[in-house]
Amino acid sequence: MRIFWQKTVLFILLFSPFLLLLSDILSGNLIDPIEEITNPTGQWALRFLLLSLLITPLNKILPFSIIKYRRMIGLFSFFYACLHLSIFLIDQQFNVAFIFEDVMKRPYITLGFSAFVLLFLLAITSTDKMVRRLGKRWKKLHKSIYVIAILVIVHFYWQAKSDMDIEPMIYALITLLLLSFRINWKKWLN
Amino acid sequence: MIRMKKIIEQYVTDEKHYLDRRAFIKKSAGLGIGLASFSAFPSLAEGVAGGGLLDQVIPTKYGKELTPHTFKQITNYNNFYEFGTGKRDPAKNAHSLKPKPWHIQVSGECAKPGNYDLEDFIAPYQLQERIYRFRCVEAWSMVIPWVGVPLAEVIKTFEPTSKAKYVVFKTLVDKQQMPGQKRPILNWPYIEGLSIAEAMNPLSFLAVGLYGKTLPNQNGAPLRLVVPWKYGFKNIKSIVSIEFHEQMPINTWQDQASKEYGFYANVNPNVDHPRWSQARERVIGRGSFFSPEKRKTEMFNGYGDEVAHLYAGLDLTKNF
Ligand code: HEM
Fold first, then answer.
1. Taking CB atoms and an 8 Å limit, are B256 and A162 in contact across chains?
2. Chain B residue at shortest CA distance from A87
3. pLDDT for position B7
4. Is the peptide bond preceding residue B90 cis, with omega within 30 degrees of 0?
5. What residues does B171 pair with on adjacent strands?
6. DSSP per residue over A147-188, as a string?
7. Domain limits at A71?
8. Which residues pair with B160 in a beta bridge?
9. I need a labelling partner for B273 at 20 to 30 A (CA). Which of A36, A136, A140, B213 fits?
């Protein structure tokens, strides 16, 4: 029962950026909904992706287990990535030729798209049944979350208008830090 | 489907208000009252919200057929990195700018250099309103009713010499007033330039207001450039220096990324930005949520008749 309530609270927390965005849309506060939804949804997708990466190292130092929350956080990252992609499709007027051109010709879109495809694969293989069915291969597949994080950071950096924009750099630093937790330094140094 | 009816109603009221006022101005002018009755000496720089009603502005033929965006849209969706990189940052942060008193340093290859108080700088010219299309290099656009003076008239006053091939503009540098300058996002000060022929073109405009009021800080108070056939970033804001040069300057965005931004920055649907297409533009806030309005970007933003001759023989794919 306690776990149920904890998960409910977590759900509400992860869902609240969406509710805030929705209230902005419905109240007509947004001047350019395309940009003003694309950017926050991209950022929330990335934040939750990084948060899901933080769970494993954090779990090691905490006296209690938090692994059970990891899946929900990962799925919320995918949820915000879906919203992010939907706005892109709306902006492209659902025109297949325009979308194809952007994915092929614009490197930052190519990277975002690749990250999305991988994230989609992780999302559909996140059920208990799939975890069991894939066994060892599940672990391998889900390690691609690191690749996704790097793809998204470069996607973020390449879409920024100024090379000196500090935001992508902050996310890049956090990602590097999270990656460094996972390297078995002892094995490397010997 | 969420229609943006609410927002659209908002434009209508805003516009109606504005048009009503224009009608009133005409009427009162006809009665011989004139606008002077609103305020005897309106200042050109009223601060944050703009708001100071400008005196004796004459309408012009420019953009009569266009429907301007609302004051709210024009003043809350800005690129002005001196106040932050987000579109909402300038409206949030520009209150720290003090547009009064304001001085403009005129220097370089001209007969009448000097340091001019803004009021004296603008006083000799008749203020006029021009409704221009505004096309950002990021592929969105608006329609803005500017108030200002033709740049050509101002330039003639300073009597540039035969060596003056370019006009260079610089924005204020002051970390206290412009907190975005605390970080090296761009190489401050922001610099822009025009060839003399471009600057003397009748379309080139120095704006001191919009919607009949003084410029809000976030729109580049108290004085900014408006060159509607070029991408938005050429329209340098909060100008403190005008210089006449013999050499072509390196403008700020060219300095930042010379493969992506050049000196000319003419609106051109046939030359893509390396990272996105310039063929179409999103008209801010028009259309519905699921189908935002897009229009085909026009060569020189639709001002080709006035400016195309300036670039005869120039390869616009190289000189972007
Ligand atoms: C098909 C997939 C994707 C497409 C088409 C796409 C497209 C875009 C576009 C158009 C922008 C805005 C660029 C601009 O403002 O000029 C953007 C920014 C961004 N995207 Fe994506 N993206 C995709 C996937 C992703 C994924 C999977 C993530 C994260 C998990 C992500 C995170 C971001 C972030 C963090 C930004 C920057 C937001 C900001 O500047 O505040 N994107 N993306």
1. yes
2. B290
3. 38
4. no
5. B239
6. HHHHHHHHHHHHH-S-TT-HHHHHHHHHHHHHHHHHS-HHHH
7. 2-186
8. B110
9. A36
Report whether A37 contacts A18 (CB < 8 A).
no
- Hey, what amino acid is at B136? C
Q: What is d(CA B72, CA B141) in angstroms, rounded to the nearest whole number?
A: 15
Q: Does the model's ipTM exceed the 0.90 cut?
A: no
**Cα(A77)–Cα(A45) distance, integer angstroms:** 4
Count the domains in chain A.
1
Q: Are B137 and B232 in contact (CB under 8 A)?
A: yes
pLDDT over 70 at B31, yes or no: no
Distances (CA, A) of B258 to A164, B227, B254, B261: 15, 21, 4, 5
Output the six-digit token pair for A146. Answer: 């690191």
pLDDT at B240: 98
Contact A161 B85 (CB under 8 A): yes
Instruction: Give residue B191's pLDDT.
Output: 98
pTM to 2 decimal places: 0.87
Distances (CA, A) of B121 to A142, B164, B165, B283: 65, 20, 22, 35
Q: How far apart are CA A85 and CA A116, in angstroms?
A: 8
Answer yes or no: do A159 and B275 touch at CB < 8 A. yes
pLDDT the model gives residue A9: 96
A179 Cα–ligand 1 center, Å: 21
Residues of A in contact with B294 (CB under 8 A): 93
In the CATH scheme, what is the code of domain B2-309?
3.90.420.10
Q: Report CA(A1)–ligand 1 centroid distance (Å).
A: 38
Handedness of CA A124, A128, A134, A135 (dihedral sign): positive
Inter-residue contact B272 to B280 (CB < 8 Å): no
Q: Any idea which residue has 């000496």 for tokens?
A: B41
pLDDT digits (tens, 9 = 90+) for B33-80: 333 333 334 456 655 555 567 878 999 999 999 999 999 999 999 999
Indicate the residue type of A117.
V
